[in-house]
Specification:
Length: 193
């Protein structure tokens, strides 16, 4: 039981660290679009990311289980690339333009464009895990989404004071991707094989 809780916490932490850019965007979008539409777009995008990640994991079960661990190369490489970019241009952040459409679909698409790092982390993590651990991981990531949504609402209410916090924390995302990549590449108790 504690292994499942630990795995859920790990997956939730990885999901939070790869969604800090979305948190900054969510905070800004709530100030311009309003909380209901912005939060709905964020939650819908994360449901899509977790669904695609689970589909990749289930697809890997169909004869590719011995190779699932090699999916850890994806977040590892992307994380190392992100770390290198931080050292090359430490003051640059994701360029977030104003949302041209104020629709739910437009908000969801914008959040999805920033969620590829989450997909690159969650898909290999789920694919390399036993089905029972996958459920724990998705629950942990789901709780992370709810927490990020709540934090976004709170930050939008006090945006003038703490608006730079999510952007500064975003630098931790690539390190989380490297850690998950290494974890997936290593054999552990949560692995399929």
């Amino acid at each position: 039981m504690m292994e499942h809780v630990g795995f859920a916490v790990s997956a939730g932490a990885a999901h939070v660290l790869t969604n800090l850019d979305n948190l900054a965007l969510l905070t800004g979008m709530m100030l311009t679009l309003g909380a209901p539409r912005a939060v709905a777009g964020f939650v819908l995008s994360q449901v899509i990311v977790l669904t695609v990640s689970m589909a990749v994991a289930v697809g890997a079960d169909q004869g590719f289980t011995q190779y699932a661990g090699y999916l850890g190369v994806v977040p590892l490489v992307l994380g190392l690339r992100g770390i290198l970019q931080q050292f090359r241009a430490p003051t640059q952040s994701h360029a977030t333009s104003t949302l041209s459409q104020s629709s739910l679909l437009g908000a969801t698409a914008l959040f999805l464009s920033l969620s590829m790092d989450s997909l690159a982390v969650m898909a290999p993590l789920l694919a390399d895990s036993l089905p029972a651990y996958r459920i724990s991981a998705v629950l942990g990531a789901g709780l992370a989404v709810v927490g990020l949504g709540g934090l976004g609402i709170l930050l939008s209410r006090i945006a003038t004071t703490f608006s730079a916090v999510p952007t500064r924390l975003e630098t931790l995302g690539p390190y989380a991707m490297v850690a998950v990549g290494i974890y997936v590449l290593l054999n552990s108790g949560t692995d399929v094989l």
